[in-house]
Amino acid sequence: MNSKTLTTFLISTMLWATGAIADDQAKTNPFGLVYKGAITENKKGKVNIHPTTYKLNGLDISANIYTPVNYDSTKKYPAVVIAHPNGGVKEQVAGLYAQHLAQLGYIAITADAAYQGASGGQPRNVDKPANRIEDIHGMADFITQYPGVDSSRLGLLGICGGGGYSLKAAQTDKRFKAIATLSMFDSGLVRRNGYQDSQLDTIQQRLKLASDARAQEAAGGEIIYTGDVKLTDEQIAKLPFDLYRQGFEYYGKTHAHPNSTFRYTLSSLLDLMRFDATSNMDLINQPLLMIAGSKADSLYMTEKAFNLATGTKEKELFKIDGATHIETYWVPKYVEQAVSHLQSFYSKNL
Q1: How far is CA 116 from CA 125, 138, 228, 332, in A?
Q2: Which residue in 7, 123, 156, 315 has its CB near the most CB atoms, within 10 A?
Q3: Do residues 170 and 284 lie in contact, with contact meaning Cβ atoms separated by under 8 Å?
Q4: What superfamily in CATH does domain 3-349 come from?
Q5: Are 141 and 106 a contacting pair, CB within 8 Å?
Q6: At a CB cut-off of 8 Å and minimum separation 6, what does 62 contact?
Q7: Cα 192 to the chain's mean position, in Å?
């Protein structure tokens, strides 16, 4: 692999490396939350947050549960499981949407993926689709047993890469009565073909690197990681896609969290590159809402999945006018539109 090809490979597998920068808000917020308007303390009569840890396949999973205003464990509430983006953690955009949904009367759970964030698992930062899908099933297992949850009214919200994995989870897990995605990202498609099919000519070379990395792991050698590339502001400004440029800003500066990183084991690509979030979309027979920015350069992934969702009688594609992929994570006017649509969708279907 020549130097130009290697550079392209590193950029594509990285997407946006956060480096060692940590937002001051993560340090000062008692719950480590980094989004604007985050809960700083639990108060009676307000939305509260409940950090918790539970077991999933022998691993400790770190989660936050958000309960509604005047939560009463003797009453019954609808609940929503929220899957975070690739490389993200529960304290970022997933937490923001969880807090908004709790304000609307839902119990919401968001958890760090196994092997990532504050959750357990060795080696660190394994990034395999099967694990991410199992994480979603595991959140459903836990939250449906939580005091006050009406297990017959369980919704699902997947954000970015968590959106792709949510589509797969919902295909077979019919506990989820209503499925929503925000800025859905098909991790397998992008790891395989490159963003917007920019790496079709290097698929076999990248698979060879991943295969060699797995062989080295199996032989007891050092684990090889990718996603550690660090770029200057000037280099970031020259990246070809909004998702990359704004992603660096969001994850590396404005909403950085010390547990959030795009560093992952190179051998994970063996699993990622054969994954397809949109296969078997006809298995989704639940109501489906897919939200994406009209200016998002990732919109093509949402549109593809939406068109393939032929098994549901109720589906909607809502494009937030003027929004890019990352802007749906934090820009108030875009978040408000997304939450408003989620409110209508869940209130009708849960």
Answers
A1: 5, 15, 15, 28
A2: 156
A3: yes
A4: Alpha/Beta hydrolase fold, catalytic domain (3.40.50.1820)
A5: no
A6: 51, 52, 53, 90, 111, 112, 117, 118, 119
A7: 19
Segment-wise mean pLDDT, segments of 10 residues, the chain, 350 residues: 43 44 75 98 97 98 98 98 98 98 98 98 97 98 98 98 98 98 98 94 97 98 89 88 93 95 96 98 98 98 98 98 98 98 98
pTM (global) more than 0.90: yes
Q: Alpha-carbon distance 131 to 3, whole Å?
A: 32
Instruction: Measure the CA–CA gap between 142 and 119, rounded to whole angstroms.
Output: 15
Give the integer Cα–Cα distance in Å for 50 and 52.
6
Q: Residue 100: CB partners within 8 Å, gap ≥ 6?
A: 335, 339
Tell me the C-alpha distance between 290 and 249, whole Å: 25
- State the Cα–Cα distance between residues 146 and 151, nearest whole angstrom: 9
Q: Residue ranges per domain, the chain? A: 3-349
Instruction: From 67, 27, 20, select the one nearest 48 (Cα to Cα).
Output: 67
- Residue 305 three-state SS: helix
Q: Verify cis geometry, omega within 30 degrees of 0, for the bond prior to 68.
A: no
* Helix (H/G/I), strand (E/B), else coil: 156: strand
Alpha helical stretches, state H, 106-241: 129-143, 161-172, 187-193, 203-218, 233-237
Strands 107-111 and 59-67 come out as antiparallel
